[in-house]
Amino acid sequence: MKGFSQRYCIVGVGQTKYGKVPGMSQLAHNALAIRAAMADAGLTTDDVDGVLTKAPTSTFPMLWAPKVAEALRITPRVTGTLDQAGASNIGLIQYAISCLELGQANYIAISYGDNPRSGTRTSYARPRGDDALAGVFGAPSSYAMVARRHMHEYGTTHEQLANVAITHRHHASMNPNAVFQDPITLEDYEQSRFVAEPFRLLDCCPVSDGGAAYIVTTEARAKDLAKPPVYVEGIGQGHPAWDFFRRGELATSGAKVSGEGAFRTAGLGPQDIDFCEIYDCFTIVPLITLEEYGFCAKGEGGSLYEDGHTRLGGALPVNTSGGLLSETGMPGTQLVVEAVRQIRGEGGSRQVEGAEVGLVSQQGGIMTTHSTMIVTKG
Amino acid sequence: MVDPAFAALGELAPEVTEETAPFWDGLAAGELRMEHCPACGSYQHPAESFCYACGSLSVEWQTVRGHGEVYSFIVVHQPYHAAFRDRLPYVVATVQLDEGPRMLGPIFDIDPSAVWIGMRVQPRIEAVSAERSALFFEPEHTGRRPDPSEGVAPAGGSVSAS
Questions:
Q1: Phi/psi of residue A333, each to 5°?
Q2: Domain CATH number, residue A25
Q3: pTM reported for the whole predicted model
Q4: A195: alpha, beta or left, given left = phi > 0 and alpha = psi -120 to 50?
Q5: A246 touches chain B (CB under 8 A)
Q6: Chain segment A86-100, per-residue pLDDT in tens
Q7: Nearest to B72 among A125, A138, A145 (CB)
Q8: Looking at the domain assignment, is residue A261 inside a domain?
Q9: Which residues on B lie below 8 Å from A140 (Cβ)?
């Protein structure tokens, strides 16, 4: 990645069970996902000297990363929690790389784990500020407002939104870890109930328990480990920041600025990308994200899906594990894990042929934050 | 006298703070009041102790018309809160006010298929408890207290009598 003295790699990935997992605490999902990532890399708690986390969405505890470190019996040289909501998963990798560049740590574990399905999920349907009197509760309503505007401005159709859900589910049908593995049809989509029009239930990701983690280190250290390293070649950020309904343009996101940053630091462009793992909390989001990254013209995201380009075997497979919509509703960490597995060739029946350069997008809030990462085989 | 159709929403009224009191006092008086910055001319909502646009500390309250147009809207079917259960499905609009700010607000008593992006709307202020009133929206030129027998305004701007 341009701007650093050396190259940095993701060397281990791990996860806990996704879906409804009673009996596992938030702490367990974090600590055990990190243990799985350490095992994947051939590392132990004696090696890992940095622990970074995104706080659990459902409760948002303070000083969470130190607690996760304690649960691993690690006394870290580097720790902390970054609050960019769903975009934190890449923001934390950027922070980890900065720490490695400064020589502050050798192996940094990054995790996210939460149990909103079996524990408390009130934060998922909590009104924000004065929005309760406005009848706006939970993320689907706000994202539906975005979707309606995109449909108005660019002619995006219900069928195109359905195609996002159907495509990602098709990929999830080849992923034994996915919460939803049964393929769906346009008819299934049209028969699913309305949540907040234009969204139906199948436009929305599920609320899921689960944890995922990865380990970041320097290229020199990465070469001695159990699995081939996956190189972090580009990272970008861009944040609309304002409350969704106050933004000048609602049918856009931080993907344009964030994507430009990632492509610039990687010295690559959209034409170089073999596959994408795109934050897909709702069906409208991948359309807007892919448009703003420059994979198609603004407003053409729906066609990209309709024409089959985003399907496995197409020109640009998207969300090869099923994404938030079908693998697990976890806010984005699983997308990094899948990108690493694809680059390593561990995708099994959902493996993208010749997957050497992948792009991961993350975003948080109501498209409030956005980060982008490009990973390569090196 | 609180219209029973709105009384259920009373419990959702947020706590009044020193900064937001003029807004809620305005609604109780049947007016929409909004902060205005004499230094840069911008309006803002929600209220703050300073101007978001220029940082001036001398923001002042003005009564505004609060008319605007629907920038986007949704039709909520999910029973998120008991207070809205009897209204399902209901329309919530993002409204671009003529004064500049955007606000979120429900448009009740309307066929969702009659709502469209670009549709002109105006404030509809209703008491939700003995002390509190709240801001909703309705098609522009709707009477403040339309006779229910008149029905709702159809799409395209034709209106019920005031």
A1: -60, -35
A2: 3.40.47.10
A3: 0.94
A4: alpha
A5: yes
A6: 999 999 999 999 999
A7: A145
A8: no
A9: 78
